[in-house]
Amino acid sequence: MRWLLLVFSTCLFAQPASLATKANQAKQFMAQGKFADAAKLYAELAKVLPSNGGLVLNHGLALHMSGQDKAAIPVLEKSLKLNPQQPPAMLFLGASYLRTGNPAKAIPYLEKFLPLDPRNLEARRMAVDAYEMTGQSAKALPHWEALADAEPKNPGVLYGLGRSWEAYAAASFAELDRRFPESAPFFALLGDTRSRANQRRVAYYLYREALKKDPAFPGLHAALAEIYRLEGQPQWALAAEAEAAKLPAPDCANLAAKPACQFAQGNFQSALAAARRQDSALGLYWRIKAANEIARLTFLRLEAAGPSPELYRFQAEELRQQGRAKDAVEAWRSARRLEPENPQWTRELAITLFEAKEYTEADKLCSALLAQASQDPQLLHLAGDIQLAQQLTDRAIPLLEKAAAADPKNLAARSSLARALMQAGRPADALPHATAALPLDQDGSLHFQLARAYQSAGLAEDAKRTMAIYQQIRARLRAQDQALEQEVQIAPLP
Amino acid sequence: MLPCLSLLLFAQIQFELTRLPFVLENGATPEKHLAETMPGGLAVFDYDNDGKLDIFFANGAELPAGKKFPNRLFRNLGNFRFEDVTSAAGLSGEGYSMGASAADFDGDGHIDLFVAGLRANRLYRNLGNGKFADVTAHAGIDSSEWGIAGAWFDYDRDGLMDLLVVNYGFIDLAKPRACGSPQRVYCNPRFYPPRPNHLYRNLGGGKFVRTDALDAWPGRGMSAAILDYDQDGRLDAFVTNDGLPNSLFRNLGNGKFEEMGLLAGVALLDHGKPVASMGVDVDEGKLVVTALSGETYPVFAATASGQFEDKTAATQIGKLSNPYAGWGVVFADFDNDGHRDLFTANSHVDDTLANYKQPNTVFRNLGNGKFEAVDAGLAARVAAHRGAVAADFDGDGRLDVVVSVIGETAELWKNTTTNVGNYVLVPPPPIGATVTVDGVSRLFSPSLGYASSLYAPLHFGLGKREKAQEIKVKLPVPPSR
Predict the structure, then answer these.
(1) Which chain A residues are closer than 8 Å to B314 by Cβ?
(2) pLDDT at A6 (0 to 100)
(3) Which of A357, A390, A445 sits opposite B272 (nearest CB)?
(4) I need a labelling partner for A435 at 20 to 30 A (CA). Which of A290, A390, B136, B387 fits?
(5) Is A470 in contact with A442 (CB distance < 8 Å)?
(6) Which pairing describes strands B247-251 and B257-259: parallel, antiparallel, or unpaired?
């Protein structure tokens, strides 16, 4: 509002009386919240005085405030051309871009604005929204931190902050992968991920790979010892720990060891800051480790803040990731109980119910959501998949046809449609959709589906050719599995 | 042949529950060994040749390798009365038993018994005096595999019954895999590397030799059906696999087989994803397989070209079976209308789930390629059902069903359907023979359902026809010499 007041007070000194009257009237409209009326007057005024920066800004502002964002954008851009240092123009241009679904264009204006008004929480929220919408969660991190400083117990902020730290860690890992592929830190981090997912043999393999790259890499022996214990090999674990004991302790006086030392003491922010100063694989390693720990602590803060929709959202997402869809359903139900009007929770609950094979309730919720948004391609896809999972092919087909038509790039919907059409005995109709869905094929099943469609449609040669591809895919995957199987036999350290 | 008569007006399939004093003990522990989800095969056969069908139940043991819960044999005294004759028959068994398969492997007129188990396969020879002798060692069928089911058939057409043993994946009993921390859960089947099924050739004189005919195609087998899918006179074998494509072993006639599941169209449903295939039964070119809830019970129907088509949706079985997880599956004409209905014994694998215990189901065959669900008095009774066999235990011309149940007494469902059609019984021909009654053909194989077996006269419903017009028995084709 501070910026609004400043803008409203823009006056037209030394202008004819009629213009001044109009300007006053526009100002009154603005004060009364009659933004559309104000916009009309400002448009007239700006026509007469096109170089008047204040008028153009007010015109843009009135348009934005009256919800005419599309019209506001060129006006606010012009305002910024006339006066590049106008914070309100930056803010409202960012806001208009955001509201018109152009978050990428909003970001530079909001980023220009925020250093000028760092305590503006509304602008911070817009910035995080813009980054999240463009899939750049990691870049939202400073804004989430500022929001968390201002509202340390706000569950929505804590959730966003935690996820943003995770995104930062993920972005750092992508950098590690790009710049230092197959390095010891790379394998060690992958091993940690697999270990957390209880995939002990793969974790074991990755830790051993890391050891091959760097026999003194910190933490590897301890990680292997844990795996040995879980595998019922306490003697091997002891031997691994003995090896670890032989390694020299990090020299904390040495700057290079600072991230490790700070991390070991639980000073994750300090570890991160130190790691950021190291342009190396190890620096990236400690950045990732520290960021993940900070994320974990942030989620603990979220938990400590008490029950909230965001806490249940966090829990539901974690459970889903672990494949515990049924438990995730309960978490989404709790989120929805706290905020029944939020359609996001209903949508997430419907999706998770589908994953948990609770089709009746998923169907009910999805139908309710579709009643509000009948052309939503994702909902149509979900509704179609729910019907298909219940073998209600006749109901599934029209929904999936709509979903595929609304978003032809949704190959998963087209794959479902192909399956439904096959079940309905319409293999020829299934063919184009089954073909389109092939890029999604990771395990050969979609090639198999297509081969069966060809076969049923009487196209024996195409069926044979496609089945051969299916078999090639399966053979390749089997060979990979076997190679991995041979490589990952858990054994004691040499 | 035994033609029977009654008047068909309107038959509503109906069962009444009675119990057998046998509790299937799976040896469940908090460690959640996957094996404990899988016992429950049974065999129905007339062990004492008194004309009444007796029941053998395979039973579990403490896991990983502890006390045996005895297998049990119940002698049919008539009128739904059974007597436990396990001890007298010498069939208590050893180790963790999973499935059972009955056949007269030595041709002496007494039905013998193979019991599959977790490193505990056993072959029992029926001595004809109410007793069985464990001839495992002499026969040479000891195995360190995780056997689930057996299927008898004369694959080399030498007149001697050979034995297919269906094996699940590899398990190290000394160090069984544990999953879930801290709360244990059943490990995903993929943690049990596939193993080949074993084919034992009957050499005569009670001796068998294991061939390597099937070694090239490991799987996680659960049950088998014997059929001649390519109509070449040589018996083939279909094996269900857990989480892997099913196998169809085509008999090449030279002691070798080739795996044709994929090319024939029975390996996978049309969506191309493997399901947890468990039991299987065959009827008029249709293979029906039980699987988990949400996976449907796949139906593969033979076409004239020797291929199979996925008819899961077209038969309505997909929609009907979708809520259930099935084990035992048997085709049986419960109302004698000439169309075999489908009985499935249901229960989820995982005993921590709310829908672990499920009711059995009957899907009535409408005779037009489709099935419909009927309550039949089964819906109210939920339990951890496993193996199931349909047979006429009281000789009233109506097929009853026996079902094994984990942790509870076995269910014996007496068929009380009224106004049933007429029927004809055909004494069991040699395994692999095809019996055709008024144009309806059936290949005789004792293996059926989940790790189970039925060695009994073949029951054909006739509907309103007073008697069968034509009964033909086509014996297995002898090899050309």
Answers:
(1) 423, 425
(2) 47
(3) A445
(4) A390
(5) no
(6) antiparallel
